[in-house]
């Protein structure tokens, strides 16, 4: 994937003058059947790794500081984000307040030094000089966690996800990697959970059907599902969410803006799953915006709060790349949304009638 400039991929957040952030932590919800509670708004650390634009260490630190001041207490990161850069930055910014927060990371990719003369093929701008080697084996997962501990400076993580075991990243190798993950990586995570070294384990993908397979194959506490339970898509209502309710598995609903359009609105260049939004998505978003205008509901507030209306969802996690974005996101969580708004979305066929609102 080619690298994009800030102008080609603008921030999904507008730049209003947000209300002052709350002085106390946001409400929390329990993850599965564990004793782990996460804030209902989670901090996705991918932008700290320079997704689509480079950010400075100072900006990254200020963004995390604003998240803490705004009441966020759940932070998610991964080795893939900036090829280690996001973990370094989150660790530096959060280290003195680590005990106040829940932190998750991901496994399945090991980082190896970039060979001399090689070039990155990544969406990250100015990443660290490493390349990815997929590894979902027992030893690979154990090494990944140790590497992440060193990069962040954290002795432990609260939650660990098997990352991106899906066809988008693995292609025809996905079946072999699924078996590798369940026979190796899952066993490693389960051992760590039994020993009390992690509080919760799960899987993080953007594929609800793959999560159904994992739910049936092992005992997980939470799944991170990116971009699949939003105002624009509710397919997890068919199989995944009922199964999660039955098995006591929580959902972290990541990417609630579908990578942009549900925050920016249907403007020129709006993004949907990191590419230009197709015409049908643009048209659907315009119709949702019209309902928002009728009821005086900001689109961002509706996008952030929608998933949380489902009882299986513990947190909505989105990426933040500036203090202003964090403050706006936190303020939108406090916006009161009238029931009539959700009713009209359902009556217009813009969201499913069986979506809890």
Molecular structure report:
- The chain is of the alpha/beta class and 357 residues long.
- The chain has one domain (28-347): TIM Barrel (Alpha-Beta Barrel).
- The protein is built from twelve helices and 14 strands.
- Strands 3-4-5-8-9-10-11-14 form an eight-stranded parallel barrel, surrounded by five helices. Strands 1-2 form a two-stranded antiparallel ribbon. A two-stranded antiparallel ribbon has the order 6-7.
- Helix 7 (240-247) links the parallel strand 10 (222-226) and strand 11.
- The chain is globular and about 55 Å long.
- 50% of the residues are buried.
- The model is unreliable at 1-10 and 15-23 (pLDDT under 50).
Structural class: alpha/beta
Strand order within the widest beta sheet: 3-4-5-8-9-10-11-14
Query: Low-confidence parts lasting 5 or more residues at pLDDT below 50?
Result: 1-10, 15-23
CATH superfamily: NADP-dependent oxidoreductase domain
Query: What is the typical, i.e. mean, pLDDT?
Result: 92
Proportion of strand residues = 15-25%
Rg estimate, integer Å: 19 Å
Largest sheet: 8 strands, parallel, barrel
How many structural domains in the coordinates? 1
CATH hierarchy, class: Alpha Beta
Region (Disordered): 1-29
Domain NADP-dependent oxidoreductase: 41-347
Pfam families: Aldo_ket_red (PF00248)
Organism: Chelatococcus asaccharovorans
Topology:
Blueprint: E1 28-30, E2 37-39, E3 41-44, H1 57-69, E4 74-76, H2 85-94, E5 102-107, E6 109-113, E7 130-134, H3 138-152, E8 159-163, H4 167-170, H5 174-194, E9 200-205, H6 208-217, E10 222-226, H7 240-247, E11 250-254, H8 261-264, E12 271-272, E13 275-276, H9 279-295, H10 299-306, E14 313-319, H11 323-333, H12 339-347
Helix pairs in contact: 1-2, 1-11, 3-5, 6-7, 9-12, 10-11
């Amino acid at each position: 994937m080619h690298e994009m400039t800030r102008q080609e991929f603008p921030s999904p957040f507008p730049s209003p003058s947000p209300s002052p952030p709350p002085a106390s932590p946001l409400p929390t919800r329990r993850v599965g059947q564990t004793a782990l509670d996460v804030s209902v708004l989670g901090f996705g650390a991918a932008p700290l790794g320079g997704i689509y634009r480079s950010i400075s260490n100072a900006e990254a630190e200020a963004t995390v500081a604003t998240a803490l001041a705004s009441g966020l207490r759940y932070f998610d990161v991964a080795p893939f984000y900036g090829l280690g850069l996001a973990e370094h930055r989150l660790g530096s910014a959060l280290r003195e307040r680590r005990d106040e927060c829940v932190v998750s990371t991901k496994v399945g990719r090991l980082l190896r030094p970039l060979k001399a003369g090689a070039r990155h093929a990544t969406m990250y701008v100015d990443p660290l000089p490493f390349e990815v080697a997929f590894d979902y084996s027992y030893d690979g997962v154990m090494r990944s966690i140790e590497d992440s501990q060193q990069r962040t400076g954290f002795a432990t993580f609260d939650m660990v996800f098997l990352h991106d075991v899906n066809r988008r990243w693995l292609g025809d190798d996905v079946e072999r990697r699924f078996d590798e993950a369940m026979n190796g990586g899952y066993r490693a995570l389960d051992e760590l959970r039994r020993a009390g070294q992690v509080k919760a384990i799960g899987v993080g993908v953007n594929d609800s059907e793959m999560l159904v397979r994992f739910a049936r194959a092992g005992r997980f506490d939470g799944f991170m599902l990116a971009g699949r339970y939003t105002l624009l898509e509710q397919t997890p209502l068919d199989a995944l969410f009922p199964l999660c309710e039955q098995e006591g598995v929580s959902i972290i609903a990541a990417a609630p803006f579908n990578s942009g359009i549900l925050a920016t609105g249907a403007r020129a260049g709006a993004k949907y799953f990191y590419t230009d939004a197709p015409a049908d998505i643009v048209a659907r978003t315009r119709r949702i915006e019209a309902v928002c205008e009728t009821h005086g509901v900001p689109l961002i507030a509706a996008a952030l709060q929608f998933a949380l209306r489902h009882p299986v969802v513990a947190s909505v996690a989105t990426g933040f790349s500036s203090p202003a974005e964090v403050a706006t996101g936190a303020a939108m969580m406090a916006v009161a949304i009238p029931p009539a708004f959700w009713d009209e979305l359902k009556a217009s066929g813009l969201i499913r009638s069986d979506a809890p609102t």
